[in-house]
Please model this.
Amino acid sequence: MKIFLSVLVTIVVLILIGFIVMYSGAVNVSVLEPPSGLTKWVLSTTMESSVESRAGDIDVPDLTGEEMIQEGAEHYISMCQGCHGAPGMEISEMAKGLEPIPPHLYEEEELEEWSPAEQFWITKHGIMMTGMPAWGTTHSDE
Model:
């Protein structure tokens, strides 16, 4: 019983500390100040695990058709290039103000970080608190 009470008190104290930190304004949420290593690790690990677990059941269609490539390029230019850039294009003012800075999707190593199913999920659902919109609210899966 003593152990249970000790664990319960510890949990309550940790929750209270969390609320004190949240409401005190101690955490700077400005994009101009990079997050701590711990914060960055927690957020990126959470995001990667979330995307990986949700994209697992997605069947990726054949993306090599000429029409699919052309349509994808048109969508990229109109909706993605502003943040994610393009070859020979300087990073936009908007992208410079985001944290994390959006990956350059025209660079192969950036694309290899995510499977096609994960890229689809991210594009459709967006990533909370990163500036990445959910295009699934305005676009079909095609």
In short: The chain is about 55% helix and 0% strand. The chain has a mean pLDDT of 90.
